[in-house]
Amino acid sequence: MLKVITARFHPPKPSSRRFDGLTILVVGASTGIGLEAAKKLAAQGTSTLIITARDEAKAATTKATIEEHIASSSAFSGPLPVIVPLVVEMTSPDSIYNLVNRLKQTTNHLDHAIISAGLLAGSYNQAETGYESSLQVNAISPTLLSTHLLPLLLASPLVQKASVAERPHLTLVSSGAAWLASRSTIEPILNSAAPLRDLSKQQAFIPGVMGGQRHYCLTKLMLEYSMRHLAFLPDIENTEKKPKVLVASVCPGAVNSDLSRHSANSGVVGMMAKIVNNTVARTAEQGANIYISSLGLGEEGRGQMWTDDHISKDHKVFLSTPEGKTLGDRVVKELQSFVKEMDIKRGM
Q1: Hey, which bits of the chain come out as E strands?
Q2: Can you tell me the distance from the alpha carbon of 263 to that of 276, in angstroms, rounded to the nearest whole number?
Q3: Dihedral, 277, 289, 308, 151 alpha carbons, nearest 10
Q4: In this structure, is residue 2 part of a structural domain?
Q5: pLDDT of 40-98, one tens digit each?
């Protein structure tokens, strides 16, 4: 709780890292931290900046907003980036595959990618896949998208760089809330053969003031299991067992954003979110600093959470205990089955 209260006074430091000549993707760039990160990338030399929003109108508006930001910045110098607005709805596998196809039509590689997807639900709702919506947005869809972004990242010339810090990065936006999942909340899925399906049942979404927050913690824990698996895939290692693509997660801390957009009108939950946002939360611009600095992480960041300018030191009980590791293995297996099923449906 102290970290939340003091977050605004100790924000992540701005990164001076340059991205000249690079092609970078920011998924979820239309508002909040994603938008601020896209602005920073555009101003720091990115050659081609690919941004996504949930519909074409928002994508076009986001492009215009970033261009206006660059035009009004007295500190900006150098060639203007090419900004490519694309669309993705993270609750929809079809939309994710459409994005991947558009990316392949737009570029033959990505140098970095940031997946800034997050949803704190105020009530139970199912995505079209049958999974609970916040679980779909926070863990399942980022895994599906990451799986199909890795080939584009592996095609980057940066994979030949001697330093891991200079190679392509895939940053998944997570939350320290993942480490707040208690044994009592995780108990119902601890021995489940299909933990994600069980977590998506309506009875798993506890009603009341903190139901959405409790579920959010669990969904981000599921993302952390997935991220760690992706980070150590043999396919992204070189012959020296060093990562050709550095996969990590970031936690921007308590930030005034639209994360809780679906709970904003949910009585006490909405009121609590507004109080935090208006008093102790960081600005979206401050939160975006951690996105940018993550793109310079070295091998020490592989499969880790980057937060407040350091690797997270939080106690990660459900990553370190035997039963937690077993749960993680089952989560990854279920995610792999989901990705395979989606690929087969689309003839991939």
Answers
A1: 23-27, 48-53, 82-87, 112-115, 169-173, 246-251, 305-307, 310-311
A2: 14
A3: 110
A4: no
A5: 999 999 999 999 999 999 999 999 999 999 988 876 777 889 999 999 999 999 999 99
Exposed, middle or buried, 125 (CB in 10 Å: 0-12/13-18/19+)?
middle
Quote the distance between the C-alpha of residue 23 and its chain's center: 18
Domain count, the chain: 1
Of the candidates 206, 165, 207, the residue with the CA atom closest to the CA atom of residue 186: 206
The secondary structure element, H or E, covering residue 57 is: helix 56-72
Integer Cα distance of 233 and 163 in angstroms:
19
Kindly list the averaged pLDDT for each block of 10 residues, start to end, along the chain of length 348. 56 91 98 96 96 98 96 79 98 98 98 95 93 98 99 98 98 95 90 97 83 92 98 92 97 75 50 55 90 98 97 87 94 98 93
6 assigned to some structural domain: no
Closest CA to 229 of 134, 295, 311, 328: 328
Domain range for 143: 13-345
For position 298, which CATH number holds?
A: 3.40.50.720
Q: Residue 122 falls within a domain, yes or no?
A: yes
Tokens of 61: 């508006």
- Closest among 268, 322, 197, 257 to 35, alpha carbons compared: 257
Is 3 domain-assigned?
no
Structure tokens at 312: 């997270």
CA distances from 298 to 99, 203, 273, 307, 316 (A): 29, 42, 35, 14, 21
Place of tokens 């949803």: 119
